[in-house]
Amino acid sequence: MRRREYKPLLLLLPLLSGCVHTRTVKQATMPSLVLSATAAELVQDVNKQCQEINSLSATVEFQATEGGPRQGKERTFTSFSGYILLRKPEAVRVIGLVPVLHTRAFDMASDGSEFKLLIYYPHDHVIEGSNTVTKESSNPVENLRPKIFFDSLLINCIQSDDLVTLTTDTETKMDPKTKQLLLDPQYDLTIARRKPDSQELLPQRVIRFARTDLNTVQEDIYDQKGNIQTTAIYGPLQRFGPHMFPGTITIKRPLEEFQIVITVQKVNVNLALTDDQFEIKIPEGSPIRKLE
Q1: What's this model's pTM, rounded to 2 decimal places?
Q2: How far apart (Å, rounded) are the C-alpha atoms in residues 107 and 102?
Q3: Cα–Cα distance between 129 and 290 in angstroms, integer?
Q4: For residue 4, is it within any domain?
Q5: Of 7, 35, 74, 139, which is least packed with CB atoms within 10 Å of its CB?
């Protein structure tokens, strides 16, 4: 005897059709040009850009914000101008100026392993420590070491022993001028390394590319626990002399709820920067505090 199979959902559809409500929503538009690339091609592009810049001198403006949902409040500090010097492999100098007066507010320098931070206001004092945080501070500013600036402004090369995967994603954004919804197709290139004696992969970075031009729009840098430690968001490229460089770079530290927006006003690359340009003269008698 043949058994009849009942499909309750299909039987209910005619009854439910009277309960369906339809509403009109804005339709998102796909860009007219969407480019494709392989993981190998994107790796090649990253390394080409990485190798083109060996040093950098920039005039910038800083805008810092502290706080967020976990703290229940947010503070945005007065913007201030300054300068950034970078020289490979990891030499960094960041100088901040007092608003209006344009005297030095702080001066931070690193040779790649150790850093010194001279704070001029309200009185001269010095902070010294490792270029990499080994003990997190409750003060997010103290965790903002020179390496974070280096890794955010210049995307590091992808090494031959790094493992990579490529995925696609599409975000929906609103054009601030036309108020139209736009689809933003992207590539995510994940750089990972194999955990010793394990099948587990440890994520190092994720580099995001816009598929409209294959330019880098974001980089997420992970800590050893798999948390996003630093996010660098790159604004549209602008021409500074013969070179193209992002007009803005937003550095976010999500675990500490701290971010700093760097607006680039002037950039020179591949200058012959000397060792003394990455050294700070400490005023005699200045108190020194060590950070881990």
Answers
A1: 0.86
A2: 13
A3: 6
A4: no
A5: 7
